[in-house]
Design brief:
Chain lengths: 224, 430
Amino acid sequence: RAHSNPFSDHRLDYPRSPSEMDWSKLYPETFDKSKVEIADIGCGYGGLLIKLSPEFPQSLILGMEIRVQVTQYVQDRIIALRKTHAEQYQNIAVLRSNAMKFLPNFFTKGQLSKIFFCFPDPHFKQRKHKARIVTNTLLSEYAFVLKEGGVIYTITDVEDLHNWMVQHLDEHPLFERLSKDWESQDKCVEIMYNSTEEGQKVTRNNGSKWIACYKRLPTPDDCE
Amino acid sequence: MKHPFQIVLANEAGTHLFSSVKNQILVFGLTGASQGKLIGSWIDPVDNLQPLQKQQQEKIKKLVTEVEDGDKKVKVPKIPTPGPGAPPIYNYIRSLYLSHQDKYLIGISDSDKSVLVFEIDYQNNENCINLIKRQIFPKRPSSITVDEEDDTIIVADKFGDVYSMDIKGPVIDDEKKLAPILGHVSMLSEVLIVKRNAKKFIITGDRDEHIRITNYPKTYVVKDWLFGADHKEFISVLNIPKFDDSLLISGGGDDFISLWNWHESKFITKFSIKDYVTQFLTDSHLPPERFLTEESEREMCISELIVLTSDSKHYIVILCENIPALILLELTSDLTFNYVQTFTTTFSIVDITAIEESGTIIASVDNEQDGEDKNLIQFYKLSNGKLQDASISNASISTSITELNPEIVESRHDFYPLYSVNTLRKRSEH
C-alpha cells in the first residue's frame, strides 16, 4: 500500500513519554552517546537515512514511517548494512510511528536540529488537506521539538504541495525561509535531492523537484 | 415516562438551573419567586437533515436550469429521506456553558455543528435567554471555554482543531474561512483557558491521552505536553481548582485521576478509583458488540469531576459514566488524594452540577418511573465532609422541574444517547 490514514487508531507502540523511550534497542552501539538529533518523517525506503549516516557520524538519526511493511524493509536494510559494514550505520534507525500524533512522545522540547519531509503524501483532495504533513497546527508541534536555529527540509515533486508547504511555513511565525544560496551550499539539500528512492524515481521520469528549507526562529520573549 | 435531562448546569450564585432535554434548552429558577418555575426556553429549529437537504435542493435547482438551457439529459438526484432501517438521527444539545457573571449561555448543537450564544436577562419575564449568534463550524465542536473578558470563546472540535470566536459580532458565513489557532491530530475532549503570572495559556485534552499546554494568544508556541501520569486512555475531564491555579486534575478512560502542576509540567500524584467503581459496573459497560471478545472487561470512564471547598478542606466529586454513585475524595494540603466516601444513589446519574458556596450538587438522573417516583432531578449536599441526600428538602423544586420537562417518550429506546463518553475509547484497527 502506498498510503496509510494518519487519523486511524493504529495499533502503535509508542512511549508514554520521551523519558520512557528505550533507544538502546534502536541504536545498540551508540545510544548512550547522544540523543536523536535528526528525524526523517515519512522516511519511506530509507535512502536518505543511509546517505545521512556517514555525513553525521556523531548524531543519532531516526526515520519514522507509518506503513508497517515499509518500516520492516528499512529495518532489515539497516541490519544488513550494519553486518556488512563493521562499525558503520550504527547511528541510524527506523521505527513505525504516526508522527502527526505522537511526535511529542518521542522528543523533548528543542531536541532536534533537523527534520526532513521528503516527498510526503500529497493528499490532493481539498477534503484531505488536514492529512498533509505540513499544516499550520502541526508546524507548531515541529517547532516545539526543533531547537532554535534548527532546520525543516522539504522536497516534493508535486508543485501544488510545494506551494502549500511554502505558504504554511511562510505564515508560521516561528519559521523563516532559507535562501537559495543557503540551499546550494547545504550538504543535506544535495543528499535529499538525490538520495531518496522517491527522488530517484522522479529523476528517472524527468520530473521536477521543489525544495524549501526553513529555519526555526527564537521563541518570542513573552512565551514559555 | 419523561426523557431525562442530558445536561444540568447551575450558575455560580445558585439561583438558576440551565438544562437540556433533546434539542431543547430549559432554564429553571432555584430560589425566590421563580423557584421551580420555567423562566427560559429555546428549541433548536434546525433538523439534522436540513443542511444536507438544502445542499441537495440547490444541486437540483442548478441541474434543472442546466436541463432547461440545453438538451442533454441529467439525472436529478433525490432529496435524502431516511428509510425504515436507518439509524436514529439525534438532534440534541451536546453541552452548555456559562460565561462569567452569567452574561451568556453558550451551547453546542449537534444538528448543524454550531456554537449557540444566548444573552441572559433574568429580568425578562417571558424568556430569560435570547439567541444572539449561531456560528457553524466545519466539524462538530466538542468543548468550549470563555476568555475572562467575556468577549472570546475558544472552541475545540471533533477533528482536533481549536478556534477562537467572538462572542458578539457577525457570523462567519463560510465556515471554511475559519482558521484554527492550534490543533491536535486527535479528537479534542476538553479545552481550558487559564492565567498564570498574568500570562494566558490554553490547555487541551484529547482522545489520544495527550494534555497539551499552549501559549495564548500566541498559540503557535507550544509550552509543553504533560507526561508522567501514565494515562493510557482518552482524557475527558480537565479541572483547574479555584484554590490553586497551578494545579490541574485530569481523568478520562483510565481508572484513576491525576494531579499535575501544569505550569511546571510536573506530575504530582494519581489516585485509583477502580476499587470503588467496579461494584457498580454492569454489562452495559462492556465494549460495543463488534469489539466484544471473551476477554472483554467492563469499562469505566470519568464523565464529570467537580472540586468543592468546604470548611477549608478541598473535595473532589467524581462521576463515572452510567453508575448510581458519586466518589468523594479529599485533596489534602500536602497534595495527596484521600478516599472519603462512595455515595450511592437510586438511579444512574446522567450529569451533575455544583453550587460551590452551599456545597449543593444537582444531578440529572436516569429515572424511567412514572407516578410519584418520577423525579429526574436530585439534590445532594456536602456537609461535615460527607455527601448527603438533600432531595427531600428540595422535593417541590425537583417535582416541579420534572413536570415542566415537556419530552414524553414511550420507552428508553426513545432516549437520546445519555452515556457517550466511553465512545471516545480507542478500538485499535490494525
